[in-house]
Amino acid sequence: NLLYKQICEAQKNNKKLLAILIDPDKVQVSEITFLIQKIKQSPATHIFVGGSIVTNFIIDELVLALKAELNLPIILFPGDPSQISEHADAILFLNLISGRNPDYLIDIQVKSVPLLKNSKLEIIPTGYLLIDGGKETAVQRVSKTTPISNTAVDQIVNTAIAGMWMGNQLIYLEAGSGALQAISPQIIKQVKQELHIPLLVGGGIKTYKQIETAYQNGADLVVIGTAFENNPHFFDNSLC
Ligand code: 1GP
Description:
There is one protein chain. This protein is α/β, with parallel strands linked by helices. The protein has a single domain (2-230), classed as FMN-linked oxidoreductases (TIM Barrel), CATH 3.20.20. Helix content is 37%, strand content 18%. It is built from 9 helices and 8 strands. It has an 8-stranded parallel β-barrel, surrounded by 6 helices. The longest helix is centred in the middle third of the chain and has 15 residues, at 102-116. The chain starts with a helix and ends in a 10-residue tail after the last helix. The structure holds SN-glycerol-1-phosphate. This is Geranylgeranylglyceryl phosphate synthase. Keywords: Lipid biosynthesis, Lipid metabolism, Magnesium, Metal-binding, Phospholipid biosynthesis, Phospholipid metabolism, Transferase.
């Protein structure tokens, strides 16, 4: 579990991590070279690959192209087992613990076992919490779960603690891709105070300032998807 150890090490040393999320359904194979060039110029420490709905079957091709050119760990962030690629380095083995849909609490995980059993992918158990980000996002639609209200801070904190006690090695606070409101600093702070495992934060983060605020309040790793998708120059002139 090399990659997980590295994330924990970074957390211990207060070195903040940044993942660029590439959603295979939103990129064209023809633009991968350009995206790779932009990722190289960014402060990204990790690449996440995945999405709620992926229909174009380019996962393997995409991961191989990223792997060939980038010296960054590639971690799968799959919406379902069809998004597993043996060419990646690790997989977030997600438990959608904010929801009450057994399909995303255990069924999909069981279905992925035949694909993962003999795989070399590092499996990182991740407690995944969907928090209301001001609009219905794909995760909510696809998982058929209700996000936790962003004002129900106790419920969020208790869910994160339960996720940790159940053995998850990471907690991921998710506002949903393209969320109107990112996870608030107060939520990040209060969850972080209770955790001794690394905290990931993503969904609706659009500016450097928001990235910085998330770090200051306790995010160990921030995930950026839409902002980079919409503007691959997002990290140009980055001071990080
Ligand atoms: C979504 O947390 C990620 O699963 C990233 O969200 O696309 O809004 O950056 P954005």
